[in-house]
């Protein structure tokens, strides 16, 4: 499904909410007749239950609040697709399992679009540019995870960005663990070629600066930023469009793939 359709479905949900920032999900649930939202010990992140005419949304209790909020938005997207408004959504899939996967992906996209409206991203971009600061501010304001916020920044600003978290392997090597989904044409491990020293400086905060890095087989030019937030360390990459090199056929930037 194309981005504009996802955005308009999300806008439809947002229109059901009482006017508040961040988006008031409980009021949308109320409009769908959800009688209870509860945190329970389940294996999946969330589920919709209908018993005796009641709609109950269950969220996995041991997930963090941002994750539960995202899951709640995902379940609201399911309710929208099940409603009359959702009947106009066409999902093309070859098999029942492909259809299921497609619906799940669609609900994730609608959830992200619902929680992080384009206007909020654009407004913040005015102050921050496409930086880690933008991702952090967006995550804070919308109460989303940094990974979800980075994925959304990538979508809205048309700048391919990758947010990674720095960790140490058992052998003491520095590893970059991707937190955001990224455009399909940018899959693979992230490596910094030109400035390995920047990575060892992961203890300090490094302002955005030009750098070369590799994502999968692609050599890219862009900006790199190293930031800390509490005990966590992040490396943020923003790819320069002009220097990006040839695109993969059908490499639609809005077409996000999971890692
Ligand atoms: Zn689902």
The coarse overall form would be globular
In order across it, which strands form the biggest sheet? 5-4-10-9-8-7
H/E element order = HHEEEHHHHHEEEEHEEEE
Discrete helix count? 8
Q: What small molecules does this complex bind?
A: zinc ion
Taken as a percent bin, the fraction of beta residues is: 25-35%
Residues in helices, as a percent range = 25-40%
Span of the ends, CA to CA: 19 Å
Radius of gyration equals 19 Å
Tally the structural domains: 2
Number of strands: 11
Question: What's the pLDDT, averaged over the residues?
Answer: 86
Q: Provide the low-confidence segments as ranges.
A: 246-259
Tell me the major beta sheet. 6 strands, antiparallel
Specify the structural class. Answer: alpha+beta
Summarize the structure.
The protein has 259 residues and is of the alpha+beta class.
Name the descriptors.
single chain, 259 residues, Arc Repressor Mutant, subunit A, 2 domains, 6-stranded antiparallel sheet, 3-stranded mixed sheet, 27% strand, globular, disordered C terminus, binds zinc ion
How would you describe this structure to a colleague?
- The radius of gyration is 19 Å and the shape is globular.
- Helix 1 crosses helix 4 and helix 5 crosses helix 6.
- 37% of the residues lie in helices and 27% in strands.
- By secondary structure, the protein is of the alpha+beta class.
- Strands 5-4-10-9-8-7 form a six-stranded antiparallel sheet. A three-stranded mixed sheet has the order 1-3-2, with helices on one face. Strands 6-11 form a two-stranded antiparallel ribbon.
- It is built from eight helices and eleven strands.
- The protein binds zinc ion (ZN).
- The site of zinc ion has 4 residues, from helix 3 and helix 4.
């Amino acid at each position: 499904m194309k981005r504009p359709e996802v955005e308009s479905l999300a806008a439809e949900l947002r229109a059901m909410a009482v006017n508040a920032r961040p988006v008031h999900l409980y009021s949308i649930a109320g409009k769908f007749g959800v009688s209870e939202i509860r945190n329970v010990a389940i294996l999946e992140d969330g589920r919709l239950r209908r018993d005796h005419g009641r709609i109950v949304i269950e969220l996995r209790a041991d997930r963090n609040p941002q994750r539960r909020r995202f899951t709640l938005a995902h379940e609201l997207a399911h309710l929208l697709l099940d409603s009359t408004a959702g009947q106009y959504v066409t999902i093309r899939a070859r098999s029942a399992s492909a259809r299921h996967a497609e619906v799940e992906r669609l609900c994730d996209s609608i959830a992200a679009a619902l929680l992080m409206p384009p206007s909020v991203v654009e407004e913040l971009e005015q102050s921050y540019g496409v930086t880690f600061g933008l991702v952090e501010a967006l995550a804070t304001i919308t109460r989303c995870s940094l990974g979800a916020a980075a994925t959304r920044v990538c979508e809205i600003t048309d700048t391919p960005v990758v947010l990674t978290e720095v960790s140490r392997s058992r052998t003491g090597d520095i590893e970059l663990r991707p937190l955001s989904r990224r455009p399909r044409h940018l899959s693979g491990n992230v490596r910094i070629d030109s400035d390995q020293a920047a990575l060892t400086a992961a203890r300090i905060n490094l302002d955005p600066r030009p750098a070369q890095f590799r994502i999968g087989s692609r050599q890219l030019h862009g900006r790199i930023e190293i930031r800390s937030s509490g005990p966590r360390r992040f490396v943020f990459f923003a790819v320069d469009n002009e220097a990006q090199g040839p695109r993969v056929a059908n490499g639609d930037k809005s077409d996000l793939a999971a890692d």
